[in-house]
Amino acid sequence: MTLVRHVLGISGGKDSAALAIYMRQRYPELDIEYYTCDTGKELDETYQLIKNLEVYLGKSITLLQAANQSTQDPFDHYLKLYGGFLPSSQSRWCTKKLKLEPFEKFVGTDPVISYVGIRGDEDREGYISKKTNIQSIFPFRKNIWSEDVVSKVLANTNATALAALYGSLAQTRPNDRFTEILNKPLSFSFPQAQKLNLLLDLDTRLFNELVFAFLKQTRATTGNYPLAQEPTFPLIDNDEVLVRDDIFRLLEDSGVGVPAYYNKLDFAVNGKQGQYSRSRSGCYFCFYQQKIEWIWLYEQHPDRFAKAVAYEKDGYTWNDDETLEDMVKPARMQSIKEEYIKRTARNAQKSKSPYLLDILADAEGEGCAACFI
What we know:
Number of strands: 7
Strand order of the largest sheet: 3-2-1-4-5
Number of helices: 13
Strand content: 5-15%
Oligomer: single chain
Structural class: alpha/beta
């Protein structure tokens, strides 16, 4: 019986929720543990999404909290310990204390395969744990493997071992072009990313089989990846790529639904029409949100905005260049909305380019979902 645990973190955002649905639909044989890291500062829609997912999955989602405080939320507990110093992109203590440490305590020293909901139309890797007992897999992408795994597999020093493995795997379906690319060494003019994409384009499933076999055969020298301990892995046959539209479709078709804060709402300023919404899950005062999202919070959830304002004291603010109270002064709020409408129009023009996959009006993300391993 395998000792490897399969886990999936639910951030409260669309991508991680859709991944939970996808994994249940495609791989019901995997006994996946679902968890969520609760900061105590999420919008109500986040908690409702988690409840909806529990019904759909037929499983409880384990609630991880960084501090067991009966009188304070986890965020407030650590804010006090940090002397009122608010987190920022330069000092993300909230990520470390409220997300990563609870997760690493949850998995302990067990070998863990962690499924991450980064889409096929996103150009980012996400957080990769430094703990050797945790291995990340990305089911929505053509390349399901993390950067560290690909680097080991395609390293020139492993070329001989890889070629031998390929020879045994490819007997039933030889591919001369795949063989040619596989045997071509990495160089300045032939970087890893180019080689990886060529191999995936030629035969994604064969490449996945090759990586899985490599990890198992070189278990002692590849950092003892958890997946190397598994006799089989169903995702090696997966060559699907899911993008933004697929995510919303999964949420709607499953009945779980899309969190209401993703719904575009109309606004008007100086005779111009615009639409805004929240682009991410996470704390309602997340410092990564766009200024138009702060305006959305002010107009749609004034009580939460007031709480966010209350945290700004002793020189600590959520934005480097202005306080929230200054941001919602009439003239400033008008300029933010006008600039947002202009930026939306510019991005709409850019998105017509065949070279751009998914340009949105705002930087899209899952808030602290990127912290999930």
